[in-house]
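Thread title: Can someone regenerate the structure for this chain?

I was given the following input by a collaborator and told the matching structure tokens would be attached. They weren't. Posting the sequence so someone can regenerate them.
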Amino acid sequence: MNNQITDEQENVILDAVDRFLERDVKPYAHALEQADEYPHEIVEKMKALGLFGATIAAEYGGLGLGARTYAQIVERVSTVWMSVSGIFNSHLIMAAAVQRFGTEEQKQRFLPRFATGELRGGIALTEPDAGTDLQGIRTHAVKKGDRYVINGAKTWISNSIQGQVLAVLVKTEKRDELRHKGMSLLLTEKGKGFSVTRKLEKIGYRGIDTGELLFEDHEVPAENLIGGIEGRGLNQILGGLELGRINVAARGVGIARASLNDAVAYAQIRKTFGVPICEHQAIQIKLADMATSVEAAKLLVRSAAEKYDAGERCDMEAGMAKLFASEAALTNSLECMRIHGAYGYSREFNVERYYRDAPLLAIGEGTNELQRQIIARALIARNPA
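Best answer:
Regenerated them for you:
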């Protein structure tokens, strides 16, 4: 689906990301995360690096990277500070919806500005009574002349405070119609009737802005309806969630790897009974299991990403990757804390951040309970008796 690049080109890109992380993120991540402060300077560096256009086609000013390369970028970023990956991931899901389903006019108008980071944003799906069950959304848009008028509320929306535009999932038919019908995606820029009512406080995934939104007679040009035809929004966003789940899985690999790295380093320094704790069998078993889960999760992410790049259906593969990698992040972060003992419980170390960040991955982009259903249904469909 995206332009394929050579291994050498991929290595050049990944090396540039590593340098950026070492120089511009790692020294500041701990303080910014503890303060829950938006990383404005890091965002400016990400613009220059082209991360806001990572998966946007080169013809629209992006890097045109495939999901495989993109997942490796996300893994590296999340190993240093997971929140940074969310700043460009939600943005790129919005961009993917425009690139895959938008009109040519929409692509020409929005994608170059998305790619540079001039226009940043994300997707607005979740509502107070509709999260995993997107068919339950109530936000609606009524067409009046050449404009849509939106009313409703959204919550847990990443990039909604610092961003300028969101792809908002709305009902565009009568609200008493069947729940799965009449849903559309509207590119919605901030303006009169579009307000952020509050910033949501979180135990982890801090630094990135997560807001609650209210739409009160907010007007959007009809030309901002993605694809130009009503009623296709649910399928459009579900297609984008495949990339989203690959991203969450890659984040899981990053958290699991960071936990492993810190545990391995600390186990060689900390001594008990006169020897480094890495020489104790109980610690060795933990480290072995942690390392194995990192490598297994990485391979599942690669499998899903390669199918996505080939244009093949990958709901099962993305679900497997997301499920396994997020659970690996949860397990490894806890084991890392246990290996560190009291120091793992201290806010001075990154360990407690991994422990706070990891649970989001089991919830976001569809809960892990939902992933199991998706995997099972796809498995049955692909293997009829």
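The chain has a mean pLDDT of 94.
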